[in-house]
Amino acid sequence: xxxxxxxxxxxxxxxxxxxxxxxxxxxxxxxxxxxxxxxxxxxxxxxxxxxxxxxxxxxxxxxxxxxxxxxxxxxxxxxxxxxxxxxxxxxxxxxxxxxxxxxxxxxxxxxxxxxxxxxxxxxxxxxxxxxxxxxxxxxxxxxxxxxxxxxxxxxxxxxxxxxxxxxxxxxxxxxxxxxxxxxxxxxxxxxxxxxxxxxxxxxxxxxxxxxxxxxxxxxxxxxxxxxxxxxxxxxxxxxxxxxxxxxxxxxxxxxxxxxxxxxxxxxxxxxxxxxxxxxxxxxxxxxxxxxxxxxxxxxxxxxxxxxxxxxxxxxxxxxxxxxxxxxxxxxxxxxxxxxxxxxxxxxxxxxxxxxxxxxxxxxxxxxxxxxxxxxxxxxxxxxxxxxxxxxxxxxxxxxxxxxxxxxxxxxxxxxxxxxxxxxxxxxxxxxxxxxxxxxxxxxxxxxxxxxxxxxxxxxxxxxxxxxxxxxxxxxxxxxxxxxxxxxxxxxxxxxxxxxxxxxxxxxxxxxxxxxxxxxxxxxxxxxxxxxxxxxxxxxxxxxxxxxxxxxxxxxxxxxxxxxxxxxx
Length: 568
Description:
Layout: H1 2-24, E1 27-35, E2 45-49, E3 55-60, E4 66-72, E5 75-82, E6 89-96, E7 99-101, E8 104-106, H2 109-112, E9 142-145, E10 151-155, E11 164-176, E12 179-193, E13 196-204, E14 212-221, E15 226-241, E16 247-262, E17 266-279, E18 285-300, E19 303-312, H3 323-327, E20 331-334, E21 337-340, E22 342-354, E23 357-369, E24 372-377, H4 383-389, E25 396-398, E26 403-407, E27 411-424, E28 428-441, H5 451-456, E29 459-473, E30 480-487, E31 507-516, E32 526-533, E33 541-544, E34 550-553, E35 559-567
Parallel strand pairs: 1-7, 1-8, 6-10
Antiparallel strand pairs: 1-4, 2-3, 2-5, 5-6, 9-10, 11-12, 11-35, 12-13, 13-14, 14-15, 15-16, 15-25, 16-17, 17-18, 18-19, 19-22, 20-21, 22-23, 23-27, 24-26, 24-34, 25-26, 27-28, 28-29, 29-30, 30-31, 31-32, 32-35, 33-34
């Protein structure tokens, strides 16, 4: 009897000790495997993988495209589906509990190489749809090579953000300072976590010593408190020279900023751009400085009031996809010294958004030092060397584009800007703007003069500008387009309100983005680009120099860029 009691007690202890183990081996994972059209796939192999991608179990889908894997320990796994004519699909970070359901989608190679619908924008956003950003691919599948060799489509789960996005662009362009001929651009964004982003960009001209630009950026989201981000940009322009004959302009800038949210209604940002530039030569000339900026905005429903302070004037000719150029300021020369265009701009604005429309009014005050005056040599192959040979020419010369930049006189202005934007049928938007402020003007000179005398006649004058822009996407072809026309007096050689962020380009400009379709739904990762600035060559101010050379000043030189971009 005693022995029986001992045996019974021992059996109870074994049962109690085994209970947790038996309870832990009750997890299972099941699901449905379909193609991109939603058709269930029969006979697809589904593997359950450990975090190191070693195989735990393997099953096949039944006649309904379903699979079940049982007798599992709870934990984190990966699921891999493989079917004929499809790329393998890998779902990572699957948390398997008592009963877990995971549905998988198989894609062909063409289906992976496509644009998926971008996340909807905020109602008050005025950014054009066609302007490509790395974030626009945030909901695309991600291709990756596994350690064992195969190429798979990787996701972390429904709505998860891919960890790597890249874009390759090949263009030909002319008419922009520091740019001429072919150029290749690569952009890569890495998102290691939901709150952290890394961005890198390099562009260069193949087979030449033409300029190169590169950029490295970092952003950390702090949640409700805001975010911090830093961007470092470097540009090398070996074909640019100054009046002293030094060849090669090197630029570097580090932009750091912090965004803060004070409750739900107030948002503020502050930061600065540290700038360093030098001309190569026997006695290198170095320029260093800090360009701070700040802004604060108060939101109440569809109405907002904001204040902004800025000191750096961005290059108006910088393309929307040229991130490095947007970070770097504009340089020119005064006398024999390298100078940077800068100033102090302050504005107070009011904006009201409604369904399909918005209206904004702001008043501003600004003073601008070393405003850039850009001119084109009448015949770059012949006139530019003669201009460069004059000791009195205080300008940066770019032999690749045939353009030069000089510093104009400082001036101040107070003004107002008003704009109205409205959404039209067929996904088209129209924006009308009015600006009142000041700009530099150049009077006509009937006789040949020295270059320095032309600069001496330059002075500021109060003037106005009017702009209208339309943008949209064509049904059927999915062509994204934008057309704008901004008028101001022909004798002005700088823009009214140069600190304005959303100003239209001077005179008639056209931008087209044509997707090259790879799938029947009209999406594609290959895109044709065409940008034309100042199409009609308006606002030109020609002058004859003492040696017979011709220079043509303008608010914006006519420029053309075209090419192909591939996103993957």
